[in-house]
Amino acid sequence: MKIGGRAHNIGEAEQIAKMGFPFVEISVIDSLKFFKEEFETLKRIKEEYGVFYLAHGPEEGNAWEPEILKKKLLPELKLIIDCLPRLAIKIFTIHFWMDERFIDKSVIKDKLLLLSEISSYASDKGIILCIENLSESWSDFLYLFEKIDPLKMTLDIGHGELLSKENRSYGFINKCPDRIKHVHIHDNFGGDSPEDDLHLPLGDGNIDFSSILLDLKGKGYDNNITLEVKPENLVKGKKIIEEILLSGSKKK
Hints:
Helices cover 44% and strands 15% of the residues. By secondary structure, it is of the alpha/beta class.
């Protein structure tokens, strides 16, 4: 598995590349800004440091209004996808909230059509579209995977700890391991609100990373892991992950 870092801006991207990480997951929030203001610098960083990129899309916005998503988010995602091959980006992660506890089933049905369209659009461009778990359980996503063949997922272990007695990562790993194409990792203390999504350094919260990562490895996962923490905490996090994977045994 390759371990990289999340960059929310150009400065962080270069900082992570300088630290020797093999890849940087960049935030692509605005297609116009990305291509006109950021592309050339990102290209230089890629060539100078030998990194590769993954991309993370903009926030969904109003998750309860499919028509707004269709008119605003969908076209923007397509424009971003059009730009990604220029930096050889193959993985594109997006937020698309599909938790039936909070989103009406009729809305989910409409959003499913949008997700199917954007997933097919990405696939035609040679890009894997990954939906990131927010508060959803594996059953929320299994329905999507049954309907949308090219759709994959980014397993966010930190998000799995929220709104749940047991980290929801276990369910995704056991029920749909073949759909997990990327992983986000960060720490927290659980909780039931967006404010509890603290993105702490690994080991500063209470998530059992050892058990989760070894379950993931046991299911054959051997793709990339993005540390979603501040750049100054990346090296510590990388060491923790490597020690867990090397040890091969869960903490008791």
